Amino acid sequence: ALMTSIIYPIVIWWGWSGNGWLSYTDDDGEGVSAVGPALKDFAGSGLVHMVGGIGALVGAIVVGPRAGRWDPSKESEFEGHSIPFCVLGTFFLWFGWYG
Question: Taking the model in full, what pTM does it have?
Fold first, then answer.
């Protein structure tokens, strides 16, 4: 809820509003940003994926690795991936993407 109600709208406003620090119009009528040329976000994919990627990175850092994951004495407890589940997941992704 924090991500969709506070973080995402603020970051999107920075880039898409025309008044944010990533893309605004200066006194000469040119599109600029606080760090150089104005952000050109093709179809909105840049900001959307940046916010999602940073959110995933923060989540992975906060959660950390599984308990005992890097302990050599427990190495046999962590099995490899299930090939049928990998194939099933691929089919789910294909179905979601191509519909």
Answer: 0.68
